[in-house]
Amino acid sequence: MSSIHEKPAASLAASLVAAVNDVSYGQHVQLKEYKRLILPLDGYVFWVATGKEILVTGALYFLTENIQKEAKSLEQRNVIFSSKEEVKPFNQLSSDQIWVGNLDETRFVFGSRSSQITQDGLFHYIGESISPIFSTQFIDDLNIINDDEVIVSNSLPIFMALPTQSNPYLDWCRWPENVPIFPSYIVPDSQAPPYITVDIDPSFQQSLTPGLISTSDKSSFQFVTETVCLTLYGLTNNQAVNVRDYIVRWAATNPDRLGITNCPIIRDIRKYQPEINTLAMIKTISFEVMYCQHAARECGAQLIHKAKLPFRINK
């Protein structure tokens, strides 16, 4: 949690402390600790309650903004909590840990990205309300998560599983060592290169068939085409070529799972930082793919059962 400290003035500090007492009337706020959990099938993030709770005393303020969008109408609230005493658990937060409160059916969160201002003898902590559409990402019982079920409806499970696939025909172009792959927008905080992200734009998805029924599990699926963009951070040209060739050859030897309908090329992306007069090592590779949704689900399930990847949650 970032912080700003200013030297308190004794008289002003006493006045502000008294004001907090008057405004809050000794308001007590119950907060629950949650830890981040990442599903290995598709990289989706959930927050799981640890059972740890704290009770803090101070004044809680909400700054409300009404937001109207096509599919939802909501109130976005910034939260300011002022206290006479330092809330030490807030200063010990990691990127995988947050504290969540609930007041008048509004849930709000303080995390490692929240700000702290220490001024005139008071401690001010700035958090945000949790949008209702994200309420499903907070769970109190880990057992309700089904680790055999994929959440996404695209080819992401196939690409997430690629580094774990073994094939003697691919020995000449193996996946680079120690190069993890992540879904876009869910890269761990401060992840150091090399690594790869997978982005699938839903606006480019098209169905080639109506819904069909699987004879194995009676689930519905379709044949789909879509565009998959890989962004490679910190990889050399030879490593990028290996990644491209590995995916193209893997698809050629697994036509029942994935087909590639374009000739992917490697593009350099110019990301410049003027302070050090340097370009970052960033490349992209775009694949036009065709696959069966049922095959994507099966590939994700094999990532769990064959590679035996567990839930990732830091205690």
Notes on the structure:
Strands 10, 11, 12, 15, 16, 17 and 20 form a seven-stranded mixed beta sheet that branches. The chain has a six-stranded antiparallel barrel with strand order 2-3-4-8-6-5. It starts with a strand and ends with a strand. It folds into two domains: 2-144, no CATH class; 156-313, no CATH class. It is of the alpha+beta class. The protein is 17% helix and 40% strand.
Features:
315 residues, alpha+beta, 2 domains, six-stranded antiparallel barrel, 17% helix, globular
Succession of helices and strands: EHEEEHEEEEEHEEEEEEHEEEEEHE
- Beta fraction: 35-45%
Counted up, domains total: 2
pLDDT under 50 segments (min length 5)?
A: 4-17, 306-312
What is the strand tally? 21
| Main sheet specs | 7 strands, mixed
Distance between the termini: 19 Å
Principal-axis shape: globular
Tell me roughly what share of residues is in helical segments.
10-25%
Could you report the average pLDDT, rounded to the nearest whole number? 78
C-alpha-based Rg, rounded:
24 Å
> Helix- and strand-based class?
alpha+beta
Tally the helices: what do you get?
Answer: 5
